């Protein structure tokens, strides 16, 4: 049974049915995440686009938006490599640009992420010469 008063999904999963946590983590689905831990990406997307519009930033040239996303990823990479304290902020910049692009293009990125996670979860791999090779799409 699922505990609804746990503070984290890890605690919640470990309390479900006694199955070892590591195994349960590999099999979890979106339904396993407690509602309190979920972020409403749909609302965030809308806020990001509203901020762009309010500030007069680009909302029409998608090439520019993708370039900015790559720039932010490069900044995050540099922050990681140089052990800078703003790595989290740079990763957030990447996500903000991605969510902004999704909102401009009418894509619910939260739903897409959940769907892709499920697709990835069903995929099976076999290590061949130390390299994981997909053997089942799911
Ligand atoms: Mg940045």
Task: Give an overview of the whole structure.
This protein is mainly alpha-helical. The protein has 2 domains: 1-38, no CATH class; 41-107, Helix Hairpins (Orthogonal Bundle), CATH 1.10.287. The protein is built from 6 helices and 2 strands; from the N terminus they run ααααααββ. It has helices at 9-14, 21-27, 41-55, 62-81, 87-104, 109-122, and strands at residues 124-128, 131-136. A two-stranded antiparallel sheet has the order 1-2. α3 (41-55) crosses α5 (87-104). It starts with 8 loop residues before the first helix and ends with a strand. The model is unreliable at 1-27 (pLDDT under 50). Bound molecules: magnesium ion. Residues 72, 75, 90, 93 line the site of magnesium ion.
Task: Outline the fold blueprint.
Elements: H1 9-14, H2 21-27, H3 41-55, H4 62-81, H5 87-104, H6 109-122, E1 124-128, E2 131-136
Antiparallel strand pairs: 1-2
Magnesium ion binds next to helix 4 and helix 5.
Small ligands present:
magnesium ion
Query: How many domains make up the 3D coordinates?
Result: 2
Number of helices: 6
Count every beta strand, where a strand is a DSSP E run of 2 or more residues: 2
CATH architecture of the largest domain: Orthogonal Bundle
Radius of gyration: 19 Å
In percent, how helical is the residue content?
A: 55-70%
The major beta sheet can be summarized as: 2 strands, antiparallel
Element-level helix/strand string: HHHHHHEE
Level-1 CATH class name of the largest domain: Mainly Alpha
Q: What class, by secondary structure content?
A: mainly alpha
Unreliable stretches covering 5 or more consecutive residues = 1-27
Please give the order of strands in the largest beta sheet.
Answer: 1-2
